[in-house]
């Protein structure tokens, strides 16, 4: 189940932009500017892609500066495990090799995501934030907060998507399906590693052959590599013949 966030790609520009709004970075004021669908505090810039700024579909994003915070609340429908995906980008090529990070909060937990060096033609990267507990029907909030880095390399956020996955189900054949998430370059969440380790131990205790050793992680690693390869190929520039 996909939940639609309001202004998830920040293409609805803030109200009352100043006359210098043609700049790639427009500093927002909490007293005069309103970001449709979002609340904000601290230092926040409205960013337009172009030049050294790489964003999906060459659109817009928000850069969180010192003490910069954005948040949104939305309604959930039913009991689900929710995963938030978002785009994280540095403010320049120089920042791509520096510390650029953002703290993401949802329900009752938070996690810091650190931008990893990009080897593709695009500098932006997609990350996934998995909420480990089941969220009941009602109101839910997500928040992004800047993390102090080096050389003022503040994070740029764009393209948010919230996906709800139903509760684990035990079928008549005794198969239990539990969702988990990994980030762009295949780093598994802690709960995913614990779950897969348990599955691997059960397999090894019941199927004692050499190929049963670490087969779960090997197969999953291969699947992740295929997915990452597809993302990288999609980012390659088109060559006209």
Question: Would you kindly provide a brief summary of this structure?
Answer:
Helix content is 16%, strand content 32%.
What do these coordinates show?
There is one protein chain. Strand 8 (101-106) and strand 9 (109-114) form a beta hairpin. The protein is globular and about 65 Å long. The termini are far apart. Strands 1, 2, 4, 5, 7, 10 and 12 form a 7-stranded antiparallel β-sheet that branches. A 5-stranded antiparallel β-sheet has the order 3-6-11-8-9, with no helix packed on it. It folds into 2 domains: 2-64 and 72-166, Galactose-binding domain-like (Jelly Rolls, Sandwich), CATH 2.60.120; 188-235, no CATH class. It has helices at 190-206, 215-235, and strands at 2-3, 25-27, 39-41, 44-48, 60-64, 69-76, 80-89, 101-106, 109-114, 125-130, 138-146, 156-166, 169-170, 176-177. The longest helix is centred in the C-terminal third of the chain and has 21 residues, at 215-235. The model has no long low-confidence stretch (mean pLDDT 76). It contains 2 helices and 14 strands; from the N terminus they run E-E-E-E-E-E-E-E-E-E-E-E-E-E-H-H. The protein is α+β, with helices and mostly antiparallel strands.
């Amino acid at each position: 189940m996909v939940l639609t966030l309001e202004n998830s790609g920040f293409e609805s520009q803030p109200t009352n932009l100043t006359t210098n709004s043609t700049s790639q970075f427009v500093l927002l004021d909490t007293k005069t500017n309103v970001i449709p669908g979002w609340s904000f505090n601290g230092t926040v810039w409205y960013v337009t892609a172009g030049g050294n700024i790489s964003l999906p579909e060459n659109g817009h994003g928000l850069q969180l500066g010192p003490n910069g915070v954005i948040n949104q609340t939305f309604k959930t429908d039913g009991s689900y495990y929710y995963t938030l995906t978002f785009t994280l980008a540095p403010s320049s090529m120089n920042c791509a090799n520096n510390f650029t990070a953002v703290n993401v909060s949802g329900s009752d937990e938070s996690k810091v995501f650190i931008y990893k060096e990009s080897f593709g033609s695009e500098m932006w990267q997609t990350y996934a934030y998995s909420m480990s507990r089941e969220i009941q029907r009602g109101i839910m909030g997500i928040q992004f907060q800047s993390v102090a880095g080096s050389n003022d390399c503040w994070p740029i956020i764009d393209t948010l998507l919230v996906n709800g996955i139903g509760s684990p189900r035990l079928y008549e054949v005794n198969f239990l399906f539990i969702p988990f998430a990994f980030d762009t370059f295949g780093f598994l969440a802690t709960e995913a590693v614990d779950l897969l380790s348990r599955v691997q131990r059960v397999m090894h205790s019941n199927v004692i052959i050499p190929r049963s050793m670490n087969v779960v992680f090997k197969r999953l690693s291969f699947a992740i590599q295929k997915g990452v390869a597809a993302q990288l190929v999609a980012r390659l520039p088109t060559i006209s013949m």
